Amino acid sequence: MKNNHADFIIGAYPCAPSFHHSGEEQETQFWRKLADVPGIRGLEQPCLEHLHPYGDEYLFKHTPDDWQIVVTAIMETMRRRGANGGFGLASTDEAQRKSCIEYYRHVWEKISRTNDRFGKQKVIALEIQAAPAIGNPSVTQAAERFAQSLTEIQSWDWPCDLVIEHCDAMTQPDARKGFLPLEQELKSDLGICLNWARSAIEGRNTSLPLEHARLCQQTGKLEALMFSGTTLNGPYGEWQDSHAPFSTFTDESLLTVEIAREMLRVSPLESFKFIGIKLLEINPEASVEHRVAILADGICALRSALT
């Protein structure tokens, strides 16, 4: 890996009080306490209008300067698809595909300004998602549109790495996100970031993530891993993309330390851009301490998996 194996990118925003629209005082306490947790290289942050609900400056003020950022487009992509199912880089709805391109231009500007502000590569990577139009059954059409979108996006002078984050595929029944199959994403010249839960949800089993990792490894395109859990029952639902904690914290979780260890064993860690966790506090009334504890446990679990 390009950094110490013990340092991880943390998708902390689903655990933050702001995710449940709590007050700013709790949010500030959350980031202050999280900064004291060891093993954090930086954050995975969604880019909507800003990198944080309270604005970019709030995030920069309340997090350590040496934390790096991986930006993800998934939250805004899903938000816009809720209003218009044609939105996406792999969409056959040309107006909505172009709208998505415009959104990525906003992301490019946000990342560029952030890195300029810090005078260094504060944002190290962007996670791109291959979203087709809802209801479009043609993988071929979606793949063509995605390739077209990537050509446009990659022509810009990006100040960070780009990776495709694989989500469960459109070819699966009852898909949660239903984006491009991994085989199509691998045809691009970008590396792949696998999220354990999203691959598990695609196969409705715990073995597909490992198969995906091996497939990416065969093509030399596995460049990042993020670990979220999923469950069969309980508050996090049945095969939901709800970022359940590790089984060390939530009994119902299918994501164990041993499963993470297997994923890491077949992964080319020395060439990875990042590895990390993205976990959700499901209870909107949870205390700041409980929210931070989920992430601290996830860091410990992932550190154990690396041994």
Structure write-up:
The chain is an alpha/beta fold. The chain has a single domain (8-305), classed as TIM Barrel (Alpha-Beta Barrel). The protein is 39% helix and 14% strand. It has ten helices and eight strands. Strands 1-2-3-4-5-6-7-8 form an eight-stranded parallel β-barrel, surrounded by five helices. Helix 1 (24-34) packs parallel to helix 10 (288-305) and helix 9 (257-265) crosses helix 10. The longest helix is centred in the middle third of the chain and has 25 residues, at 94-118. It is globular, with a radius of gyration of 18 Å.
Summarize the structure.
The chain is of the alpha/beta class and 307 residues long. It has one domain: Divalent-metal-dependent TIM barrel enzymes (TIM Barrel, Alpha-Beta Barrel).
Layout of helices and strands:
Blueprint: E1 8-11, H1 24-34, E2 40-46, H2 56-62, E3 68-72, H3 74-83, H4 94-118, E4 123-128, H5 139-154, E5 161-166, H6 182-185, E6 191-195, H7 196-203, H8 208-219, E7 222-227, H9 257-265, E8 274-278, H10 288-305
Parallel strand pairs: 1-2, 1-8, 2-3, 3-4, 4-5, 5-6, 6-7, 7-8
